[in-house]
Write a structure and sequence with these properties.
Length: about 210
């Protein structure tokens, strides 16, 4: 049979049916593309959730993926390749889902290694901050006591204690300490109030 005869004998209904089947297949392939993209987006969002970039799990997107899978499983797949692709996507989602559930359980039980690691890091940071705060508090106390001794010595020598300023006094000492550390590599300093020629000064020396 020639090509022209086949075209003549092909009924309009057959052509319409074939076109509809092709459109249906393309529509299903587009749906599969969307499903695959959503599954990969969901994977990324769960990874972000597990490291606390996201405050909440991506439940909304996960529900959309589940609905899409259920809808596609009921679709009339006539093409074996398309049907196979759907099966692979469903298996991929189920594999991810099993992993997400396991990690969520480990998180709830405090056994998820990233959470344990981060908890230890948070604890260490808190300890370091507390130590720094204590050190800062001790240093501030030492500055206050030194300033009090300096102010008292100024009064005793007839100086104008009323013009003294604690912040300026502290800033001056810190600058002196920085200069000594940079020039001589001194790490710890000892301060002493001395009177020279009737003038009160703070003398710094290495401990």
């Amino acid at each position: 049979m020639t090509e022209s005869k086949r075209k003549k004998e092909e009924s309009p209904s057959a052509r319409t049916s074939g076109e509809e089947a092709q459109r249906s297949r393309k529509a299903l392939e587009l749906e599969l593309d969307r499903l695959e993209a959503k599954i990969e987006d969901l994977k990324i969002l769960y990874e972000q959730y597990f490291v606390d970039i996201l405050p909440q799990p991506p439940d909304k997107l996960r529900a959309e993926v589940v609905r899409a899978i259920k809808r596609l499983l009921k679709a009339p797949f006539r093409n074996s390749a398309t049907r196979f692709r759907l099966r692979m996507l469903v298996q991929r989602y189920q594999s991810y889902s099993t992993y997400w559930e396991r990690v969520n359980k480990q998180r709830d039980e405090g056994k998820y290694f990233r959470d344990v690691f981060k908890a230890e890091m948070r604890e260490k940071i808190e300890q370091d901050l507390a130590a720094q705060a204590n050190k800062k508090g001790s240093a501030e106390k030492a500055f206050r006591e030194l300033y009090s001794s300096y102010e008292s010595a100024v009064r005793k020598t007839g100086g104008q204690a009323a013009t003294l300023n604690y912040d300026a006094f502290k800033k001056s000492l810190m600058k002196k300490a920085k200069d000594l550390k940079e020039k001589h590599g001194v790490q710890k300093l000892h301060y002493k109030i001395v009177v020279k020629g009737g003038k009160v000064v703070v003398k710094a020396s290495a401990k």
